[in-house]
Amino acid sequence: MRAPTLSYHADRIQAAIESDGAAKSALVASWRRSATLHHLDPSERKPPHRLTDLELKHARQRIEPLICAAQDSLDRLYLAVGGVGCCVLLADREGVPVDRRGAAGDNKTFESWGLWTGNVWSEDVEGTNGIGTCLVEQRLLTIHADQHFFDRNTALSCTTAPIFDHEGNLAAALDVSSCRADLTEGFINLISMAVADAARRIEADNFRQAFSDARILLTPAQDKHAGGLLAVDRDDLVIGATRAARLSLGLTSEQLARPLPAGDLLGKVEISGELRDAERAVVQRALARANGNVAAAARLLGISRATLHRKLNRLEMSRAH
What we know:
By secondary structure, the protein is of the alpha+beta class. The protein has helices at about 10-20, 25-35, 55-60, 65-80, 105-110, 125, 130-135, 185-210, 245-250, 255, 260-265, 275-290, 295-300, 305-315; strands at about 85-90, 95-100, 140-145, 155-165, 170-180, 215-220, 230, 240. It folds into 2 domains: about 45-210, GAF domain (Beta-Lactamase); about 215-315, no CATH class. Helices cover about 45% and strands about 15% of the residues. Helix 4 (about 65-80) packs antiparallel against helix 8 (about 185-210), helix 12 (about 275-290) packs across helix 13 (about 295-300) and helix 13 (about 295-300) crosses helix 14. The mean pLDDT is about 90.
């Protein structure tokens, strides 16, 4: 029998877990994981678990390239939300914030709530929360007020988006958190859009940084999947793809491990007019500078003559000589 001292919040969670709500609600499913899988008690009042300075240093080092790529986006996101009492957190895939933006006047409040670098916000430690649950479910979500598992976190509102690395693997989570009690649904929706946009910018900047010597192509959107980025070498072979590109083009890691001509891959879908026109213009300029000599134009483009011939065929362009 449960102890009679459980809070109303704990009673509500227990009742939801014992119902069939987990089959219908992602939130209740997270509550159930917190209670039954991780054996957490929603009424527990222990302070947040914090890494040592050395552990935090190692956590930062593990995703240092992504942290570097994220700096501009973190600054822009904070400029958008910092003035209304929110902080911005970049957490690693273990749920540990490794970078942060916040107003100096709010720091004491946020630190007391555990919204600070080095504190652990994984679901197995903090139960249902923005960062931890986002990392488990790998989707954009908001955990608002009493949707949190622990009673001590119910003053928070956290909107979090997953970040995938240059190989399409889950790498981090981007979070905007607030302790304000007057957040409206409309404003939470605006925060959600800003967080999602910033997360995609971080992914794109990290991808370009990882493939700094490659040509980057934008893939068209397919069905419910947004367009992504492909990294293409000088021989027009795909050497990298973002998670969005993998989903929209149906690419697997096994396929990307083999030489894969970009033209063959993009031929599976209708190439956008802008992409085709841009590529045609680049080839036309090279041919013009080479006075129509295909071999010389290929050298100007940094590709082989055979690759340029394939491009000319695909773009339905005539050859001079």
